[in-house]
Amino acid sequence: MIPAARPEQPATGVPLRATGMPLHDPAARQRWASLVLGAVLLWPLLAATEFSPWKIFEPRSLHASARFLAGFFPPATEAGFLGNVALGAWQTIAIATSGTVLALFLAVPLALCATANLSISSLGGRMAPLPFAVRQGLRGAMVALRTVPELVWALLLVRVVGLGPTAGVLAIGLTYGGMLGKVYAEILESVDSHAARTLLANGSGRLQAFAHGLLPEAAPELTSYTVYRWECAIRSSVVLGFVGAGGLGQEMDNAVKMLAGGEVMTMLIVFVALVAGADGLSAWLRRVMQ
Amino acid sequence: MIAARWPLLLTGIALAIVVAASFWTLDLHLGALLAPASLAAMGRYAAEFLAPDLSPAFLARLAGAALETLAMSVLGTVIAAVLAAALCLPAARFAGRPPARWRVPARLLFNVLRAIPELVWASLLLVAAGLGPMSGTLALALHTAGVFGRLFAEAFENAPQGPAQALRVQGNRESLVLLYATLPQLGPQLLSYVLYRWENNIRAAAILGVVGAGGLGQMLAFHLGLFQNGRAATVIGAMVLLVYGVDLASYAIRRTMVRMH
Questions:
Q1: What is the number of other CB atoms lying within 10 angstroms of the CB of residue B183?
Q2: Are the beta carbons of B42 and A276 separated by less than 8 Å?
Q3: Which residues constitute the domain of residue A101?
Q4: Of A149-158, B54-63, B165-174, B190-199, minimum mean pLDDT range
Q5: Is residue A69 part of a domain?
Q6: Minimal Cα distance from A94: which residue of B?
Q7: How many CB atoms lie within 10 A of CB A216?
Q8: Per the domain annotation, does A61 fall within a domain?
Q9: Which distant-in-sequence residues (6+ apart) come within 8 Å of A215 by Cβ?
Q10: Fewer Cβ atoms within 10 A, N terminus or C terminus of chain B?
Q11: Total of domains in chain A
Q12: A13-25 pLDDT tens trace
């Protein structure tokens, strides 16, 4: 409310009526129709998700959640437990970091092979059919790696390599390898390729053209995207713990299952601080790199 | 030049130390992964996945779970949008209005909601809401409400004030100003945020079930637990198709929206 902005006028609506304009909403019918349509569409969704919030407020489940929530305060602070949490937090960071490094081993070669800017055959016009097919195939492979969520990769890998951080590292490596590779290839195609094309046309090798023509142009964007993905990897490595891939997530899963509210609270605080820290560090790194 | 490179060099060294420490402390068995025995095991495993179960009875159950996942993603997104729309008004600062007293607490709430991933929300909600898709839906709604809250509040703050002011000087109530000036103005932008999060939420909804919150994820965890890898492969295929379908649908809706304006 800004009293100052109000001109000295009588009550609502009077000036409009004076002009003879209709006072009803011209779009009223549309608005009501879309509201009703929305409600009709929402109904089957509510049924499909067994949505019955009143269940939460039944005495029995209310009692259970109240006891669980009451345990949240105070957060658990025994020295031994805090040690475990610190170890879990480090493991989470380490899984994210190793996974991202592994992803780089996958992404860099894939991106170099897939980017059209390093194609020699396309120098004279259109790309030859075989290189074109290979590049499209690699792109498809990267999309496939990325489309399967990392949690599903982790679920599958836990059965191959057993419970523990190895499954988490491999899951992040595979998903992020596809993701980074595809984006790297696109970044390399989006920068000014004049230098690289000239180098290629004058007979330099692909790697030389990349290192001296494309990389100087693309380096800031490439590093900034990689740092951003590392930050995302920290978030997902916590989630991966819930299927047994180690780190803070696994500890949290255990604590929730044992309804140890205080421990859950401590770990949530640590997790939020971890993500905020990674967020800040990543923003700072990206600023420094520019 | 050299002075400017110092921070970069130090960052590089710190990065190298963190990477080395990560690999060193994790006790990874990457070498064991390439041993002949485990390669053979992986080959068998992969072969089982290459024979997906496509029997009609199983596909019917799969379709049910896929619909459940789809419903979870849509309902979670809608609830989040409604929650965020209600909560972001006190969180937004409007030009020419007294400073919003609830701005800081509301933003803090959004940040906490957003910082906790959907899967963690789901595992916490299982205690209160029990196993099943409702926990998953609420988990999606809570996390997404945090995301929307911030986006919506920023959209409201950056909205052009002309139309709203025009209604205000006529002496209309704030609620009418919101309904007839600000919301219609921001509609397309807010809808585009909602579509973007829907694409995210279908991905999340597909896997939430792994902790017991319904949908395709629950089915995947179930069949993997029974070592029915052919069926698990079908479920993963369904996940990928569903995500792809939602991306297409969202793209189509966006295109229609652009054409209408």
A1: 14
A2: no
A3: 79-289
A4: B165-174
A5: no
A6: B22
A7: 12
A8: no
A9: none
A10: N
A11: 1
A12: 444 445 556 567 7
To the question of pTM greater than 0.95 for the whole model, the response is: no
For the CA atoms of B250, B253, B259, B261, the dihedral, rounded to the nearest 10 degrees, stands at -100
The CATH T-level fold of domain B53-260 is: MetI-like fold (1.10.3720)
Q: Does A272 touch chain B (CB under 8 A)?
A: yes
Q: Is residue A118 part of a domain?
A: yes
- How do residues B29-43 score in pLDDT, each as one tens digit? 777 777 787 788 888
Dihedral sign, Cα of residue B250, residue B256, residue B259, residue B261: negative
Is B131 at the interface with chain A, CB within 8 A? no
- Asked if B185 reaches chain A (Cβ–Cβ under 8 Å), the answer is no
Compute how many other C-beta atoms are within 10 angstroms of the C-beta atom of residue B87: 20
Say how many C-beta atoms besides its own lie within 10 A of residue A196's C-beta. Answer: 27
Segments of chain A scoring below 70 in pLDDT: 1-23, 289-290
Kindly state whether residue A111 falls inside one of the protein's structural domains: yes
Q: Give the distance from residue B252's alpha carbon to the nearest chain A alpha carbon, in angstroms.
A: 18
CB B45 within 8 A of CB A160: yes
Residues of A in contact with B123 (CB under 8 A): 242, 252-253, 256
Which domain CATH number covers A186? 1.10.3720.10
Q: Which residue has the tokens 């020419």?
A: B96
CB B176 within 8 A of CB A16: no
Token duo for residue A167: 């499954």
